[in-house]
Design goal:
Blueprint: E1 4-5, E2 14-20, E3 26-32, E4 40-44, E5 55-61, E6 72-79, E7 86-92, E8 102-107, E9 114-122, E10 125-134, E11 140-143, E12 156-161, E13 167-173, E14 176-183, E15 186-193, E16 196-202, E17 208-212, E18 221-225, E19 229-236, E20 239-247, E21 251-255, E22 264-269, E23 272-278, E24 284-286, E25 291-292, E26 300-306, E27 315-320, E28 326-330, E29 338-340, E30 352-358, E31 367-372, E32 378-383, E33 386-389, H1 391-394, E34 404-408, E35 417-421, E36 425-430, E37 436-442, E38 447-451, E39 460-465, E40 468-473
Parallel strand pairs: 4-8, 5-11, 25-29
Antiparallel strand pairs: 1-3, 2-3, 5-8, 6-7, 6-9, 9-10, 12-40, 13-14, 14-15, 15-16, 17-18, 18-19, 19-20, 21-22, 22-23, 23-24, 26-27, 27-28, 28-29, 30-31, 31-32, 32-33, 34-35, 35-36, 36-37, 38-39, 39-40
Length: about 475
């Protein structure tokens, strides 16, 4: 059994272990690394070594090259009992951790089962994730592959719930994946119980929201924005607790701007953009001189991030009203400065509702799906760091006029599919050539998200529309 030792600082030869006292409060200690245990030597869900229970090895593996396709990951393990313990941490894949697989030894303590999940990052934005149930009867492997786990077959509606229809946001953490349905009037936390949807009120409202790991524990917190206030809500089991607040925004995005291993925030409103740097524990500090858009930003409507130019740093994409979208490229030095790159996006005035980065053509760079206000959706393909409008080639014509979009492999063919939420929502099947074909028309919707709501390892689709939220799966 591994011997634990407290430490005041984290030397390179030591790995973090989450240790939860038997019947007592959770504590965090450091444990000497053992052969084959790269991320952490022990994550005890309910106790120290003396608390008993079997131990299994959790392996995080994948076929993505480090660091060219994957440069950081987070791993989380949580008792499936909401009152039990949890472990979560984010790691840069460098030095001793410069590669896959990585392993974590998990001791059961009093837990009968746990949920384990991992998320992989490239250039400061998520690019892969996986989750699995840990029964403590056998070792478990999570895979951050180019081809994610999914399920083939036809689309069927499972259940429906009355819920807000402004936006759907998926959050992974203790208790599994939940989806927050939110609008300016309120919010509900949606979860799956068998083939039914449960809805729990959440005391928050906002015009827009995103899910991201604010405090480095590998579960997805919320950033909820209104014109007057942007507030972080930290995930606590299946619920969320209000945290720090900032000036209001019409759009917000999270990514690792300064390459220090945690996720920063960019908020936008009107002609203004503000970067808030994260200290790794969920405290955000404004970086007033970090963004230089040269006056090109005039009316922010949407924000997204991804490494467009292939230098390993996240770039910021700004959608506007009645003006061309703008791209600000990340600083290769890691200083967290974003500067205007006018040649990346075609200089055509658009009114953007939503920006959805996705690898449409399977060449491992970030393409872009753009949802427009009152005009057909568009697809821009990344050509050596420049975005080229190939909508007429990639989308069925006429392309839908959509309110929102979701992208990801939903049918287990290793090609991203596309959902365009509209009065007749279009489920489009992607092909290996990056061309989308119409598969099925679904219910009217104003928001969409692909998320593993029932925690079975395969993504589901949730659509929010005028009569509530519908849950579809294959």
């Amino acid at each position: 059994m591994l011997r634990l030792a407290a430490a005041a600082a984290r030397p390179a030869s030591v790995a973090l272990a989450a240790v939860l006292g038997c019947g007592g409060p959770a504590v965090t200690r450091f444990a000497g690394a053992v052969a084959g245990a790269g991320l952490a030597a022990l994550a005890g869900l309910t106790g120290l070594a003396g608390c008993g229970g079997p131990a299994v090895t959790l392996t995080v593996d994948g076929d993505r090259a480090v660091p060219a396709e994957l440069d950081a990951l987070c791993v989380g393990v949580a008792d499936r009992d909401p009152g039990g313990g949890a472990f979560g941490r984010t790691y840069r894949l460098e030095d001793r951790l410069a590669g896959l697989p990585q392993t974590l030894v998990v001791e059961a303590g009093a837990a009968s089962s746990a949920l384990a999940w991992a998320r992989g990052y490239r250039g400061g934005v998520p690019v892969a994730h996986d989750q699995a149930v840990v029964s403590f009867e056998r070792d478990v492997t999570l895979r951050l592959d180019r081809c994610p786990r999914a399920r083939a077959g036809g689309i069927r509606e499972v259940a429906m719930a009355t819920a807000p229809s402004g936006r759907l946001v998926a959050s992974m953490g203790q208790g599994g994946v939940v989806v927050v349905a939110i609008d300016a009037a309120g919010a509900l936390v949606l979860d799956a119980r068998g083939d039914a949807l449960t809805a729990t009120p959440l005391a928050v409202a906002g015009a827009t929201a995103i899910a991201f790991d604010a405090d480095g524990d590998c579960d997805d917190d919320l950033a909820v924005a209104t014109a007057g206030e942007l507030t972080i809500h930290l995930r606590d089991g299946l619920g969320f607790t209000p945290g720090p607040s900032f000036l209001g925004a019409t759009a917000v995005v999270a990514f690792d701007a300064d390459r220090d291993g945690d996720l920063d925030l960019v908020a936008g409103a009107g002609a203004g953009l503000a970067l808030y740097r994260n200290d790794g524990a969920g405290t955000f500090t404004p970086a007033t001189a970090a963004i230089d858009h040269g006056g090109a930003v005039t009316a922010v409507t949407a924000l997204a991030a991804g490494d467009l130019d292939g230098d390993g740093n996240a770039d910021l994409i700004v959608g506007q009203a009645g003006a061309p979208p703008v791209v600000l490229v990340g600083d290769a030095s890691g200083a967290g400065v974003l500067t205007l790159a006018p040649a990346i996006f075609p200089p055509v005035a658009l009114t953007v509702r939503e920006l959805v980065p996705a690898d449409v053509d399977g060449d491992l760079d970030r393409d872009l799906v753009v949802v427009l206000d009152g005009a057909p959706a568009r697809v821009y393909i990344n050509r050596d760091g420049r975005l080229e409008d190939q909508s007429f080639v990639r989308l069925p014509q006429p392309a839908p006029v959509a309110a929102a979009a979701a992208a990801g492999d939903w049918d287990a063919d290793c090609a991203p599919d596309l959902i365009l939420a509209a009065p007749a929502t279009a489920a489009l099947r992607g092909g290996g050539d990056g061309v989308f074909t119409a598969e099925q028309a679904l219910a009217a919707a104003t928001a969409a998200v692909l998320a593993d709501l029932d925690d079975d390892g395969a993504p589901d689709l949730l659509l929010a529309g005028p009569d509530g939220v519908r849950w579809y799966r294959r």
